[in-house]
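Journal club side-thread
Mid-discussion, someone asked how the predicted structure for our own chain would compare to the paper's figures. Pasting it here so we can look after the session.
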Amino acid sequence: MANKIFIKFILLLLPLLLQALTFKVASYNVENLFDMQYNGHEYKEYIPNSKYGWNQYTYQKKLQNISKVIYDLKPDIISLEEVESKTSLLDLRKYIKKRGLDYKYFAIADKKNSTVKVAVLSRFKITKTKELRVTYQNRYRNILEVHVLIDGKKLLLFINHWKSKSSPESYRIKYAKVLRKRIDTLPKDTDYIILGDFNSNYNEYITILQHKKLNDTNGKTGINDVLKTIYHHKMVDINMLKHNCNLLYNLWLELPVNERFSYIYQGEKDTIDNIILPCGMFDGKNIEYIKHSFGVFKPSYLFKNGSIYKWERRYGYGKFTGLGYSDHLPIYAYFSTDRHYKKLTLKVLHNKKYTLGSIKELYHLKNLNKQLLLKNCVVIQKDRFGCTIKRLKDRAIYIFHHNKLFKKGYVYNLIINGVKKYKGNLEINSFIDINRIKMAKNLKYFYLQYKNGMNLSKKIYLNEIVYRINGVFKNGYLYYDKKNKIKIYNKIKNYKIQNGAYLKLKFVRIASYKGNNEIIISKKNKD
């Protein structure tokens, strides 16, 4: 009898056990998170209660500021760089928990008396840790290897903080060789993530040529040549991984070039924080990377006067003010234990903490100072660059770059973190959570139904998808009634629209170019 009850219990529990899990992994250099204990290894400005103002007050302000960033980002696992000690790590964890986010597991590379160290906070169980020694010298920080168990599947993390560019490339190559030697011992299908502050751009093999003082290796770089993120002098893409499992893929390649930065030095945008993946993350087994989910966390409060709002000292080199965050921006990516992503639901945490809003509001806000929760957004159009969402009796807006996370015809809740204008067109460029609800019943109600006399050049129609519209093409414009016309952007290759041609179009998006509305046509739009 007891056995029958147990079997019934397992059968009831089985669907829960088999439910796939989607999770977020992030990396953040928190810029000198020192504690208040003096042990002789501190930078001089972080000696407790010294003339630079590192005291209990500024320490607590630092913890408050960094905990806010991590709480708003809400990663399931986060690697941290520039943490002085276990004490400062646990204090940070405590401050994050006060905000409502609990990391039960942690680890820090503290076997060496380096000034600052790498660490990790995790919601998932850490089953094993190991430190990879680069050299015996304290100036070389150990690489932290962390084994995590997620949904019954194993994930390895290799957390890095390589030597800064105050030293030439040969120093960073030492890190790369130790790391490469270790990953070469792993089975080819191992799921692992290499992340952290490499003090190397994703394309360092190119940028190093612009800095002679760094180039003491004849152009050879640790991140590219040793780790093998380039092949035949080209960046490795996902297709290359399928044919050569010795190669690695850098996620910076998924962002537009102008958005590739997490650090700014002397006005130069750098990508020294990296997330790098092996072929095992794309093999359809165990843990998978969700393609095109990589991003940089950059809410407006992390910027000041056009620069990253670093931990602030008065007049640059005076006392700490207790203001600012870090000189780096966090980076992140999503992963799933469901290789088909059929149940992609990134659980929206603490809905009451966010402002419930509308898409219409986004068009009128001067600055998005806090996250905005948009409920019941329907994906009504997708292209290779992004997708268009709309709420019933609300406006439409375009989401740039993250189209792989969305499926046409489905309803989502979104926590919006950032919007931007691109050539006059408002776009969502950052969100911190999504939750797929259901499939929409009828998309027809979400398209713009053209009526005679409607002026599509009005700003209120920006980003709308017009269900059907007909008209005559003349000198770059579609004359769709006697009074109105709108400019056409033709995306169809090798297709020239002749003057006087009568066009029948469907599902065309209204975008903005240099302040004026235009309709975008492709093969899909032509009847």
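Post-session note: The domain at 25-336 is CATH 3.60.10.10 (Deoxyribonuclease I; Chain A).
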